[in-house]
Protein backbone atom coordinates (compact mmCIF):
# COMPACT_ATOMS: atom_id res chain seq x y z
CA UNK A 1 0.00 0.00 0.00
CA UNK A 2 2.90 2.35 0.68
CA UNK A 3 4.08 1.95 -2.91
CA UNK A 4 0.54 2.56 -4.19
CA UNK A 5 0.37 5.83 -2.20
CA UNK A 6 3.73 6.88 -3.62
CA UNK A 7 2.43 6.23 -7.10
CA UNK A 8 -0.61 8.39 -6.58
CA UNK A 9 1.50 11.18 -5.10
CA UNK A 10 3.74 11.18 -8.15
CA UNK A 11 0.77 10.98 -10.50
CA UNK A 12 -0.85 13.98 -8.80
CA UNK A 13 2.38 15.96 -9.08
CA UNK A 14 2.55 15.18 -12.79
CA UNK A 15 -1.12 16.03 -13.27
CA UNK A 16 -0.68 19.49 -11.76
CA UNK A 17 1.72 20.42 -14.55
CA UNK A 18 -0.87 19.43 -17.16
CA UNK A 19 -4.07 21.02 -15.85
CA UNK A 20 -3.92 23.89 -18.31
CA UNK A 21 -4.70 21.36 -21.04
CA UNK A 22 -7.23 19.42 -18.96
CA UNK A 23 -10.99 19.36 -19.54
CA UNK A 24 -11.38 20.95 -16.11
CA UNK A 25 -13.63 19.14 -13.65
CA UNK A 26 -15.34 16.90 -16.20
CA UNK A 27 -15.30 13.23 -15.24
CA UNK A 28 -13.24 11.24 -17.75
CA UNK A 29 -15.27 9.23 -20.24
CA UNK A 30 -14.67 5.50 -19.92
CA UNK A 31 -13.29 3.87 -23.06
CA UNK A 32 -14.79 0.37 -23.02
CA UNK A 33 -13.00 -2.83 -23.95
CA UNK A 34 -12.72 -3.69 -27.61
CA UNK A 35 -11.69 -2.09 -30.87
CA UNK A 36 -13.24 0.97 -32.43
CA UNK A 37 -12.11 -0.23 -35.86
CA UNK A 38 -13.86 -3.26 -37.37
CA UNK A 39 -10.74 -4.31 -39.27
CA UNK A 40 -7.11 -4.02 -38.30
CA UNK A 41 -5.46 -0.74 -39.37
CA UNK A 42 -2.65 -1.11 -41.89
CA UNK A 43 0.58 -2.59 -40.54
CA UNK A 44 3.63 -0.43 -41.40
CA UNK A 45 5.81 -1.68 -44.22
CA UNK A 46 8.90 -1.70 -42.01
CA UNK A 47 7.28 -4.22 -39.68
CA UNK A 48 6.17 -6.38 -42.60
CA UNK A 49 9.66 -6.29 -44.12
CA UNK A 50 11.38 -7.08 -40.83
CA UNK A 51 9.15 -10.10 -40.27
CA UNK A 52 9.69 -11.43 -43.78
CA UNK A 53 13.46 -11.06 -43.38
CA UNK A 54 13.35 -13.34 -40.35
CA UNK A 55 11.30 -15.86 -42.37
CA UNK A 56 8.51 -15.63 -39.84
CA UNK A 57 4.91 -14.42 -39.77
CA UNK A 58 2.97 -12.20 -37.41
CA UNK A 59 0.91 -15.17 -36.31
CA UNK A 60 4.00 -17.18 -35.40
CA UNK A 61 5.55 -14.25 -33.56
CA UNK A 62 2.35 -13.68 -31.60
CA UNK A 63 2.18 -17.35 -30.68
CA UNK A 64 5.80 -17.29 -29.53
CA UNK A 65 5.34 -14.45 -27.03
CA UNK A 66 1.96 -15.84 -25.94
CA UNK A 67 3.53 -19.24 -25.31
CA UNK A 68 6.42 -17.71 -23.35
CA UNK A 69 3.90 -15.96 -21.09
CA UNK A 70 1.83 -19.12 -20.77
CA UNK A 71 4.79 -21.35 -20.01
CA UNK A 72 6.73 -19.09 -17.65
CA UNK A 73 4.92 -18.85 -14.33
CA UNK A 74 7.76 -16.78 -12.88
CA UNK A 75 7.36 -14.14 -15.58
CA UNK A 76 3.61 -13.99 -15.05
CA UNK A 77 4.22 -13.54 -11.34
CA UNK A 78 6.57 -10.62 -12.00
CA UNK A 79 3.99 -9.02 -14.28
CA UNK A 80 1.21 -9.35 -11.69
CA UNK A 81 3.43 -7.92 -8.95
CA UNK A 82 4.59 -4.87 -10.89
CA UNK A 83 1.07 -4.23 -12.20
CA UNK A 84 -0.23 -4.12 -8.64
CA UNK A 85 2.57 -1.76 -7.64
CA UNK A 86 1.61 0.68 -10.40
CA UNK A 87 -2.13 0.26 -9.95
CA UNK A 88 -2.89 -1.17 -13.39
CA UNK A 89 -4.38 -4.37 -14.78
CA UNK A 90 -1.63 -6.85 -15.74
CA UNK A 91 -3.24 -7.12 -19.17
CA UNK A 92 -1.87 -3.67 -20.00
CA UNK A 93 1.67 -4.99 -19.52
CA UNK A 94 0.87 -8.19 -21.39
CA UNK A 95 -0.55 -6.13 -24.26
CA UNK A 96 2.61 -4.06 -24.54
CA UNK A 97 4.81 -7.18 -24.57
CA UNK A 98 2.60 -8.97 -27.08
CA UNK A 99 2.51 -6.00 -29.42
CA UNK A 100 6.26 -5.44 -29.33
CA UNK A 101 7.19 -9.06 -29.90
CA UNK A 102 4.62 -9.53 -32.63
CA UNK A 103 5.47 -6.47 -34.69
CA UNK A 104 8.99 -5.60 -33.58
CA UNK A 105 11.18 -8.58 -32.68
CA UNK A 106 10.73 -12.26 -31.92
CA UNK A 107 10.50 -13.25 -28.27
CA UNK A 108 13.20 -15.43 -26.80
CA UNK A 109 12.10 -18.90 -25.78
CA UNK A 110 13.12 -18.41 -22.15
CA UNK A 111 13.09 -15.45 -19.78
CA UNK A 112 16.67 -16.31 -18.80
CA UNK A 113 17.82 -15.32 -22.28
CA UNK A 114 16.85 -11.73 -21.55
CA UNK A 115 19.04 -11.69 -18.45
CA UNK A 116 21.97 -13.06 -20.45
CA UNK A 117 21.47 -10.41 -23.12
CA UNK A 118 21.34 -7.71 -20.44
CA UNK A 119 24.81 -8.64 -19.21
CA UNK A 120 26.27 -8.22 -22.70
CA UNK A 121 24.84 -4.72 -23.01
CA UNK A 122 25.82 -3.52 -19.54
CA UNK A 123 29.58 -3.83 -19.98
CA UNK A 124 30.03 -0.07 -19.82
CA UNK A 125 31.30 2.61 -22.14
CA UNK A 126 27.97 3.45 -23.81
CA UNK A 127 27.73 7.10 -24.83
CA UNK A 128 24.76 8.93 -26.28
CA UNK A 129 25.97 11.14 -29.12
CA UNK A 130 25.48 12.15 -32.73
CA UNK A 131 28.22 13.03 -35.20
CA UNK A 132 30.80 13.56 -32.48
CA UNK A 133 28.53 15.68 -30.26
CA UNK A 134 27.58 14.23 -26.89
CA UNK A 135 23.93 14.66 -25.97
CA UNK A 136 25.00 16.36 -22.73
CA UNK A 137 26.75 19.03 -24.79
CA UNK A 138 23.85 19.20 -27.22
CA UNK A 139 21.21 20.01 -24.60
CA UNK A 140 23.34 22.89 -23.30
CA UNK A 141 22.52 24.83 -26.46
CA UNK A 142 20.46 28.00 -26.02
CA UNK A 143 17.46 26.46 -27.71
CA UNK A 144 16.98 24.16 -24.70
CA UNK A 145 17.08 26.93 -22.08
CA UNK A 146 13.31 26.80 -21.54
CA UNK A 147 13.61 23.16 -20.47
CA UNK A 148 16.08 24.05 -17.70
CA UNK A 149 13.25 25.74 -15.81
CA UNK A 150 11.25 22.52 -15.58
CA UNK A 151 11.46 19.84 -12.91
CA UNK A 152 10.76 16.16 -13.24
CA UNK A 153 12.31 13.79 -15.74
CA UNK A 154 9.15 13.40 -17.82
CA UNK A 155 8.62 17.13 -18.21
CA UNK A 156 12.28 17.92 -18.88
CA UNK A 157 12.90 15.23 -21.49
CA UNK A 158 9.53 15.82 -23.16
CA UNK A 159 10.51 19.47 -23.47
CA UNK A 160 13.88 18.57 -24.96
CA UNK A 161 12.22 16.22 -27.41
CA UNK A 162 9.85 19.01 -28.48
CA UNK A 163 12.76 21.41 -28.98
CA UNK A 164 14.50 18.81 -31.13
CA UNK A 165 11.42 18.46 -33.34
CA UNK A 166 10.84 22.20 -33.65
CA UNK A 167 14.40 23.50 -33.95
CA UNK A 168 16.81 20.78 -35.06
CA UNK A 169 15.06 17.94 -36.84
CA UNK A 170 15.77 18.04 -40.59
CA UNK A 171 17.38 21.48 -40.22
CA UNK A 172 20.83 23.02 -40.39
CA UNK A 173 21.73 24.80 -37.15
CA UNK A 174 25.04 26.59 -36.61
CA UNK A 175 26.36 25.00 -39.78
CA UNK A 176 25.47 21.44 -38.74
CA UNK A 177 22.83 19.39 -40.53
CA UNK A 178 20.60 17.22 -38.38
CA UNK A 179 18.67 14.14 -39.59
CA UNK A 180 14.96 13.98 -40.23
CA UNK A 181 14.46 11.41 -37.49
CA UNK A 182 13.29 11.07 -33.92
CA UNK A 183 15.41 12.47 -31.08
CA UNK A 184 15.58 8.98 -29.56
CA UNK A 185 16.87 7.43 -32.80
CA UNK A 186 19.51 10.11 -33.45
CA UNK A 187 21.09 10.48 -30.01
CA UNK A 188 20.02 7.56 -27.84
CA UNK A 189 20.53 4.36 -29.79
CA UNK A 190 24.23 3.84 -30.42
CA UNK A 191 23.94 0.20 -31.44
CA UNK A 192 21.12 0.02 -33.97
CA UNK A 193 19.49 3.36 -34.69
CA UNK A 194 15.72 3.16 -34.62
CA UNK A 195 15.50 -0.05 -32.61
CA UNK A 196 14.39 -0.75 -29.08
CA UNK A 197 15.71 -3.32 -26.65
CA UNK A 198 14.89 -5.99 -24.08
CA UNK A 199 11.73 -7.70 -22.92
CA UNK A 200 9.82 -4.42 -22.93
CA UNK A 201 11.44 -3.13 -26.15
CA UNK A 202 11.98 0.26 -24.52
CA UNK A 203 14.11 2.97 -26.04
CA UNK A 204 16.56 4.88 -23.82
CA UNK A 205 14.75 8.21 -24.10
CA UNK A 206 11.54 6.68 -22.77
CA UNK A 207 13.45 5.28 -19.81
CA UNK A 208 14.97 8.71 -19.10
CA UNK A 209 11.52 10.30 -19.19
CA UNK A 210 10.12 7.81 -16.68
CA UNK A 211 13.06 7.49 -14.33
CA UNK A 212 11.60 9.78 -11.63
CA UNK A 213 8.35 7.80 -11.46
CA UNK A 214 10.17 4.45 -11.38
CA UNK A 215 12.54 5.74 -8.69
CA UNK A 216 9.63 6.88 -6.51
CA UNK A 217 7.46 3.81 -6.96
CA UNK A 218 9.91 0.94 -7.42
CA UNK A 219 13.01 2.34 -5.75
CA UNK A 220 15.37 1.82 -8.69
CA UNK A 221 18.07 4.47 -8.91
CA UNK A 222 17.50 7.40 -11.21
CA UNK A 223 18.97 7.19 -14.67
CA UNK A 224 21.17 9.81 -16.29
CA UNK A 225 21.94 10.50 -19.94
CA UNK A 226 25.56 10.75 -18.80
CA UNK A 227 25.56 7.06 -17.84
CA UNK A 228 24.46 5.20 -20.92
CA UNK A 229 25.46 1.84 -19.47
CA UNK A 230 23.01 2.30 -16.58
CA UNK A 231 20.24 3.20 -19.02
CA UNK A 232 20.85 0.07 -21.06
CA UNK A 233 20.98 -2.07 -17.93
CA UNK A 234 17.54 -0.73 -16.98
CA UNK A 235 15.94 -1.46 -20.33
CA UNK A 236 17.63 -4.84 -20.80
CA UNK A 237 17.18 -6.35 -17.33
CA UNK A 238 13.69 -7.93 -17.18
CA UNK A 239 13.13 -7.08 -13.51
CA UNK A 240 13.85 -3.39 -14.03
CA UNK A 241 12.35 -3.03 -17.49
CA UNK A 242 8.97 -4.36 -16.33
CA UNK A 243 8.82 -1.45 -13.89
CA UNK A 244 9.47 0.95 -16.77
CA UNK A 245 6.85 -0.75 -18.93
CA UNK A 246 4.31 -0.40 -16.12
CA UNK A 247 5.33 3.23 -15.53
CA UNK A 248 4.85 4.04 -19.22
CA UNK A 249 1.38 2.50 -19.19
CA UNK A 250 0.43 4.19 -15.91
CA UNK A 251 1.61 7.50 -17.31
CA UNK A 252 -0.50 7.07 -20.46
CA UNK A 253 -3.59 6.31 -18.38
CA UNK A 254 -2.99 9.35 -16.19
CA UNK A 255 -2.33 11.89 -18.94
CA UNK A 256 -5.29 10.71 -21.03
CA UNK A 257 -7.53 11.15 -18.02
CA UNK A 258 -6.06 14.53 -17.06
CA UNK A 259 -5.65 16.04 -20.50
CA UNK A 260 -7.97 14.32 -22.97
CA UNK A 261 -10.76 13.47 -20.56
CA UNK A 262 -10.79 9.74 -21.26
CA UNK A 263 -10.37 6.83 -18.86
CA UNK A 264 -8.41 4.24 -20.87
CA UNK A 265 -7.70 1.97 -17.90
CA UNK A 266 -10.06 -0.75 -19.18
CA UNK A 267 -8.78 -0.86 -22.75
CA UNK A 268 -5.36 -2.55 -23.11
CA UNK A 269 -5.45 -1.99 -26.87
CA UNK A 270 -5.38 1.79 -26.37
CA UNK A 271 -2.59 1.70 -23.81
CA UNK A 272 -0.66 -0.69 -26.08
CA UNK A 273 -1.12 1.75 -28.95
CA UNK A 274 0.30 4.58 -26.87
CA UNK A 275 3.16 2.36 -25.73
CA UNK A 276 3.90 1.75 -29.40
CA UNK A 277 3.69 5.33 -30.71
CA UNK A 278 5.00 7.17 -27.62
CA UNK A 279 4.46 10.78 -26.47
CA UNK A 280 1.06 10.14 -24.84
CA UNK A 281 0.96 13.70 -23.45
CA UNK A 282 1.34 15.23 -26.92
CA UNK A 283 -1.30 12.91 -28.36
CA UNK A 284 -3.68 13.56 -25.46
CA UNK A 285 -3.37 17.31 -26.03
CA UNK A 286 -4.07 16.86 -29.74
CA UNK A 287 -7.17 14.79 -28.98
CA UNK A 288 -8.35 17.36 -26.43
CA UNK A 289 -8.01 20.14 -29.01
CA UNK A 290 -9.94 18.09 -31.57
CA UNK A 291 -12.76 17.44 -29.13
CA UNK A 292 -12.98 21.07 -28.03
CA UNK A 293 -13.48 21.94 -31.69
CA UNK A 294 -16.04 19.16 -32.15
CA UNK A 295 -17.93 20.28 -29.05
CA UNK A 296 -18.12 23.84 -30.37
CA UNK A 297 -19.70 22.42 -33.54
CA UNK A 298 -22.19 20.34 -31.58
CA UNK A 299 -20.46 17.05 -32.42
CA UNK A 300 -19.85 14.09 -30.16
CA UNK A 301 -16.31 13.61 -28.82
CA UNK A 302 -13.88 11.48 -30.78
CA UNK A 303 -12.70 8.54 -28.70
CA UNK A 304 -9.09 7.33 -28.64
CA UNK A 305 -8.53 4.73 -31.33
CA UNK A 306 -6.23 1.76 -31.48
CA UNK A 307 -3.60 1.39 -34.19
CA UNK A 308 -2.67 -1.94 -35.84
CA UNK A 309 -0.65 -2.89 -32.75
CA UNK A 310 -3.34 -2.16 -30.19
CA UNK A 311 -5.99 -3.69 -32.44
CA UNK A 312 -4.25 -7.08 -32.18
CA UNK A 313 -4.12 -6.81 -28.38
CA UNK A 314 -7.85 -6.15 -28.15
CA UNK A 315 -8.60 -8.83 -30.72
CA UNK A 316 -6.68 -11.41 -28.65
CA UNK A 317 -7.83 -10.11 -25.28
CA UNK A 318 -10.01 -13.05 -24.27
CA UNK A 319 -7.16 -15.45 -25.03
CA UNK A 320 -4.70 -13.29 -23.09
CA UNK A 321 -7.04 -13.11 -20.10
CA UNK A 322 -6.73 -16.88 -19.77
CA UNK A 323 -3.05 -16.46 -18.87
CA UNK A 324 -4.14 -15.06 -15.50
General description of the model:
With 324 residues, the chain is mainly alpha-helical. It has one domain (2-128, 188-321). Helix content is 58%, strand content 4%. The protein has helices at 2-16, 45-53, 58-71, 73-85, 90-103, 112-121, 135-138, 153-168, 183-187, 204-218, 228-236, 238-260, 268-277, 280-296, 308-315, 317-321, and strands spanning 29-30, 129-130, 133-134, 172-173, 176-177, 262-263. The chain has a two-stranded parallel sheet with strand order 1-6. Strands 2-3 form a two-stranded antiparallel sheet. Strands 4-5 form a two-stranded antiparallel ribbon. Residues 1-25 have low confidence and may be disordered.
Order of helices and strands: HEHHHHHEEHHEEHHHHEHHHH
Enumerate the spans where pLDDT stays under 50 for 5 or more consecutive residues: 1-25
Number of helices: 16
Shape: globular
Q: How many structural domains does the protein architecture include?
A: 1
| Rg, Å, rounded | 19 Å
Q: Average pLDDT value?
A: 87
Task: Tell me roughly what share of residues is in helical segments.
Answer: 55-70%
Which sheet architecture does the biggest sheet show? Answer: 2 strands, parallel
N-to-C span: 22 Å
Spatial order of strands in the largest sheet = 1-6
Q: Briefly note the structural class of the backbone.
A: mainly alpha
Percent of residues in beta strands? under 5%
Strands, total number: 6
Can you lay out the helices and strands and say which pair or pack?
Blueprint: H1 2-16, E1 29-30, H2 45-53, H3 58-71, H4 73-85, H5 90-103, H6 112-121, E2 129-130, E3 133-134, H7 135-138, H8 153-168, E4 172-173, E5 176-177, H9 183-187, H10 204-218, H11 228-236, H12 238-260, E6 262-263, H13 268-277, H14 280-296, H15 308-315, H16 317-321
Parallel strand pairs: 1-6
Antiparallel strand pairs: 2-3, 4-5
Helix pairs in contact: 1-10, 3-5, 4-5, 4-12, 5-13, 5-15, 6-11, 8-10, 10-12, 11-12, 12-13, 12-14, 13-15
Amino acid sequence: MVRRHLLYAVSVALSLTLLAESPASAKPLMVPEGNRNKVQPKIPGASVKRTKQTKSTFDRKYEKIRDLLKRDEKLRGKIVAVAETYGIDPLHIVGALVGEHTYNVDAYDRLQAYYVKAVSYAAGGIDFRYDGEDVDEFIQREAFSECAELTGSFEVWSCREAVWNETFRNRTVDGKRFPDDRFSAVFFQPYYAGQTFGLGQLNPLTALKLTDLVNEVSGYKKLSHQRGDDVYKAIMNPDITLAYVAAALRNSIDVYGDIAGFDISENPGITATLYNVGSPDVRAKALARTNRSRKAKGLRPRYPQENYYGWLVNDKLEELKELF
